[in-house]
Amino acid sequence: MDLNLLRVFVAVYETGSVSAAAERLFVTQSAVSQSLTRLRREVDDQLFGRDGRALRATPAAHQLYPDFHGALSQVESALAGLRDFDPAVARYRFRLALSELGEVGFLPTILSSLAAEAPGVEIEVVPLDVRALTEWLARGFVDLAIASTPPPGDFVGTILKSERYVLLMSSEHPLAARPQISRNAFLSARHLMTSSDSAAPGVGAALERAGLGIVPSLTVGHTSALPGLLHAGPWVTVVPSSLAQNWMPTWPLTVRPLPVDLAPIQVRLFARTTSHESAALNWFRQAVTEAVHTAPEQFWSPQPPWSPLRCRDPGDEALG
User: Fold this and answer.
1) CATH for 92-161+265-293?
2) CATH numeric code, 164-263+302-318
3) Which of 106, 227, 257, 311 could be 233's S-S partner, Cβ–Cβ 3.0 to 4.6 Å?
4) What 8-state DSSP symbol labels residue 139?
5) Residue 270: which of 120, 128, 88 has the closest Cα?
6) 6 — alpha (psi -120 to 50), left (phi > 0) or beta?
């Protein structure tokens, strides 16, 4: 069978779309459609049927995919040795899934490293959605993802960083005067949380198991909002230690250890499982890994206002 037909079949199967397969293979949609027509004649099966806006694989396509994918992977691996990815001259676009913390903490170093080594390479950053990550990696929607919470499925990933979480608050918060925070004080405090930290569910579950489950008084969508809210209000928040340490020189904030010693959160790199352009993916994965390992973790810090509004909570003094 024509190798290009295998590529088209695998691309359509993994993306569920003629247009997405064409974009991946750098061909026109009509070329993909023509190849599908040839494939259908050769195997005497429809292979893919329309299901709303997506293409649904037939039972025959599901049966063929493992063998076709395996054969294509072997061929691509053999060819990769003959046409290694040359970052110095390559014109290529990669998709990288990052949380807001990843964009702030890792992206500047990644871009700086790639710009020097691969001036023709472009990066498209996709907001991380852990719930969709399994499908994204399986279909090749993203090439790499940096996440603290492993996606569902048999994904192991490469450990990039280990991060401990701490309790952060305004330096004027009643708890800031205490070197250690008791369990009762932690539970009685008004907690501020962000939905943009991919590790938050894991940290919350660990605290729950330790009998310190958090019921947030306020949840915000952006990590960058935390220091200003902490400075102006009666809240405390659980954040990565490196993030807290980089905010403290700019904001009058105080960091304290949690009442329990939680295991460090592991930041991992996950790669797509599709077989196309494996040489390019291997280079990108190695480049991102090296960049993150050398990242100074200088998280960007929003500047405090000149005249901050202070909000006090009458219940603060009652914290045990």
Assistant:
1) 3.40.190.10
2) 3.40.190.10
3) 311
4) H
5) 128
6) alpha
Instruction: Say what the pTM is.
Output: 0.64
Which residue type is seen at 190? R
Q: Hey, how many other C-beta atoms are within 10 angstroms of the C-beta on 249?
A: 8
Mean pLDDT of 158-165: 86
| pLDDT of 170 | 94
Phi, psi of 267 (to 5 degrees): -90, 125
Three-state secondary structure call for residue 235: strand
Q: Supply the mean pLDDT for the chain.
A: 83
Q: With beta carbons less than 8 A apart as the criterion, state whether 108 and 120 touch.
A: no
Which region among 69-73, 85-89, 148-152 has the lowest average model confidence (pLDDT)? 148-152
Nearest to 274 by CA among 31, 66, 69, 41: 69
CATH architecture assignment, domain 3-80: Orthogonal Bundle (1.10)
Each residue of 17-47: pLDDT tens digit? 998 888 888 778 888 999 999 999 999 999 9
The tokens of 241 are what? Answer: 């230690």
> What single-letter amino acid sits at 93?
R
Which H or E run includes 281?
helix 278-293
CA angle 219, 220, 222 (to 5 degrees): 145
Q: Comparing 92-161+265-293 with 164-263+302-318, is the CATH topology the same? A: yes
Extract the tokens encoding 230. Answer: 């902490």
- Return phi, psi of residue 263, to 5°: -65, 145
Give the CB-side neighbour count of residue 220, counting CA atoms within 13 A.
14
> What is the tens place of the pLDDT at every residue in 79-130?
655 457 788 888 888 999 998 888 878 888 899 989 989 999 999 999 998 8
Residue type, 279: A
